[in-house]
Write a sequence for this structure.
């Protein structure tokens, strides 16, 4: 269900132009994702442990030089490599020795 919820959040922001800042926004996304008992997850958002984790992760990202999202850190042979943006996935694949095939390759003239 995580993949479905992620897609619903993406659609809400980038396709529908709707916010995701209010509790009701989260309720709509989780309902569309068929997540059972959405309150179980939404109630955790304001918890002190969630806030602590958010601040810790934000500090860790800033400490690596993050200035936007997605900020991706790849550990390769004991070295950290930072990448900004989803348009860098091909570079990450090259770094780790994997072939990268763009999701739209079927539409290109090969």
């Amino acid at each position: 269900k995580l993949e479905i919820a992620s897609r619903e959040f993406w659609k809400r922001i980038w396709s529908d132009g709707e916010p995701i800042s209010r509790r009701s926004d989260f309720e709509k996304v989780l309902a569309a994702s068929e997540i059972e008992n959405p309150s179980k997850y939404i109630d955790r958002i304001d918890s002190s442990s969630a806030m602590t984790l958010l601040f810790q992760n934000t500090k860790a990202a800033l400490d690596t030089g993050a200035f936007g999202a997605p900020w991706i850190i790849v550990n390769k042979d004991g070295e950290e490599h930072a990448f900004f943006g989803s348009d860098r996935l091909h570079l990450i694949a090259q770094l780790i020795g994997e072939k990268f095939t763009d999701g739209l390759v079927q539409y290109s003239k090969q």
Residues 26 and 42 are 7 Å apart (CA to CA). The chain has a mean pLDDT of 91. Residues 48-63 form the longest helix (16 residues).
